């Protein structure tokens, strides 16, 4: 019996453990930290051996195959040791894809991937197809394959998950954009991160498709130097295209294999140029899957957006509170500030992943009236923005940040939580940060 060792007892680890057990592997789960009680119970129910609070190397280095959770960097000593021993170390995406015949739509990018994945899943459901969103959101891909295999998967895939693939190839790959992010995991080399994102297309064949943002110079330049085999389906809001999707005169135009679909963007619930792009990407993929135009139109118009991404929370004293906790990098915050149409008190800060805030300067000058810093170390933010706004204040909790923002507003203003940073200094994750923001706003 082949031995499958899983490093990390979170969602992807436990899902992979269930699938591994069903496929006849001897499975062992090892987590350096603590495995949640709910996940411990699942592993016990399936009679899967596990440990937490540290790794027992003798129980790991005898593996035939190792699946590591995306949170563990390749430079971790244990991973280096495994690779030196020629033991394959793969991601959940790679493992789960081996055991399903489903059509895979893989979605990656620095920003927009969650919204695009949810949009895609929404259209597939509305079309009556047996399908789910999985990967970086919801239940793990492996768990679905093990317990209720679908015909279609809309998979949100991070660069860390792509780092662990060997043969994984989605039929349709969507690359929303590439901006500097997670550079701490890529030796602070942007090129390493770009290469990682493009792994989504590296195993595709001529029968597959790559949908990508033709307005993104990073993507366009990389494709010129590193051609892929899949059929290219670009999308753009600045130029007319012969194949793919483009935006003109408040309409999206989608051209696939000589068929054309047009739809107005006026009725889209989700606003902003970035969401028009997300809609174009999902609609293009849907047309490639031969989903009816009417279904695509109705699905796009009915889609409400994603929690923690430019989520309208409340209006208090004629001030709008907006939760954009999912903005964990500068590019995401750029979109958020760009969509503000009133003077804005901006709550920002957290774990800085090597951020360059230059791109935000024009927007901060134009739209931001005050800045509330929310992080353990705000020195870089204070240094960067002190000369741009009259008021910049440091806070140490979400409740305090929201109370101070409330005092800084006048009627008609916005309060925007768009941190541009990871959340791990003060919060469990960006969802926890967003929920704390919403609770603090409701308690004003």
UniProtKB/TrEMBL annotation:
Residue ranges of domain Mur ligase C-terminal in the record: 308-421
Name this polypeptide is given: UDP-N-acetylmuramoylalanine--D-glutamate ligase
This protein's UniProt keywords: ATP-binding, Cell cycle, Cell division, Cell shape, Cell wall biogenesis/degradation, Cytoplasm, Ligase, Nucleotide-binding, Peptidoglycan synthesis
Annotated Pfam families: Mur_ligase_C (PF02875), Mur_ligase_M (PF08245), MurD_N (PF21377)
Enzymatic class: ligase
Subcellular location: Cytoplasm
NCBIfam families: murD
EC number: 6.3.2.9
PANTHER family cross-referenced by the UniProt entry: UDP-N-ACETYLMURAMOYLALANINE--D-GLUTAMATE LIGASE
Pathway terms, separated by semicolons: Cell wall biogenesis; peptidoglycan biosynthesis
Family: Belongs to the MurCDEF family.
Alphabetical list of Gene3D superfamilies matching this protein: Mur ligase, C-terminal domain, Mur-like, catalytic domain, NAD(P)-binding Rossmann-like Domain
Signal peptide: none
One GO CC term, this protein: cytoplasm
Top-level taxonomy: Bacteria, Pseudomonadati, Bacteroidota, Flavobacteriia, Flavobacteriales
Record-linked SUPFAM superfamilies: MurCD N-terminal domain (SSF51984), MurD-like peptide ligases, catalytic domain (SSF53623), MurD-like peptide ligases, peptide-binding domain (SSF53244)
Organism encoding this protein: Leeuwenhoekiella aequorea
Catalytic activity: UDP-N-acetyl-alpha-D-muramoyl-L-alanine + D-glutamate + ATP = UDP-N-acetyl-alpha-D-muramoyl-L-alanyl-D-glutamate + ADP + phosphate + H(+)
Gene Ontology molecular function: any one: ATP binding
Membrane-crossing segments per the record: none
């Amino acid at each position: 019996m082949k031995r499958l060792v899983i490093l990390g007892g979170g969602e992807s680890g436990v899902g992979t453990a269930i699938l591994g057990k069903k496929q006849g592997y001897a499975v062992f789960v090892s987590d350096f930290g603590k495995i949640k009680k709910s996940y411990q119970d699942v592993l016990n129910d399936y009679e899967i051996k596990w440990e937490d609070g540290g790794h027992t190397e003798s129980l790991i280095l005898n593996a035939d195959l190792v699946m590591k959770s995306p949170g563990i960097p390749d430079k971790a000593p244990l991973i280096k040791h495994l690779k030196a021993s020629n033991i394959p170390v793969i991601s959940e995406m790679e493992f789960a894809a081996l055991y399903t015949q489903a059509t895979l739509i893989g979605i990656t990018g620095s920003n927009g991937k969650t919204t695009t994945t949810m949009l895609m899943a929404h259209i597939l459901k509305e079309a009556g197809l047996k399908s789910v969103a999985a990967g970086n959101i919801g239940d793990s891909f492996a768990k679905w394959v093990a317990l209720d295999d679908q015909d279609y998967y809309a998979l949100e895939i991070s660069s860390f998950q792509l780092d662990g693939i060997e043969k994984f190839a989605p039929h349709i790959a969507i690359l929303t954009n590439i901006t500097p992010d997670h550079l701490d995991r890529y030796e602070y080399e942007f090129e390493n991160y770009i290469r990682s994102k493009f792994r989504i297309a590296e195993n595709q064949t001529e029968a597959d498709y790559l949908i990508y943002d033709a307005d993104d110079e990073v993507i366009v330049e990389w494709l010129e130097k590193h051609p892929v085999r899949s059929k290219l389906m670009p999308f753009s809001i600045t130029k007319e295209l012969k194949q793919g999707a483009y935006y003109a005169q408040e309409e999206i135009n989608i051209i696939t294999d000589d068929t054309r679909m047009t739809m107005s963007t006026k009725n889209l619930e989700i606003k902003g140029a970035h969401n028009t792009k997300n809609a174009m990407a999902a609609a293009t993929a849907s047309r490639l899957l031969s989903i009816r135009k009417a279904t695509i139109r109705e699905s796009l118009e009915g889609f409400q957006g994603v929690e923690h991404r430019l989520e309208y929370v409340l209006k208090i004293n004629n001030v709008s509170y907006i939760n954009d906790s999912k903005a964990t990098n500068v590019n995401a915050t750029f979109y958020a500030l760009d969509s503000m149409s009133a003077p804005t008190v901006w709550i920002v800060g957290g774990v800085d992943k090597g951020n360059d805030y230059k791109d935000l300067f024009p927007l901060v000058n134009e739209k931001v009236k005050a800045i509330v810093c929310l992080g353990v170390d705000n020195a870089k933010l204070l240094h960067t923005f002190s000369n741009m706004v009259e008021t910049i204040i440091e806070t140490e909790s979400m409740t305090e940040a929201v109370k101070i923002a409330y005092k800084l507003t006048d009627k008609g203003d916005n309060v925007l939580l768009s941190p541009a940073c990871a959340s791990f200094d003060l919060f469990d994750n960006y969802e926890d940060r967003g929920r704390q923001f919403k609770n603090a706003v409701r308690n004003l």
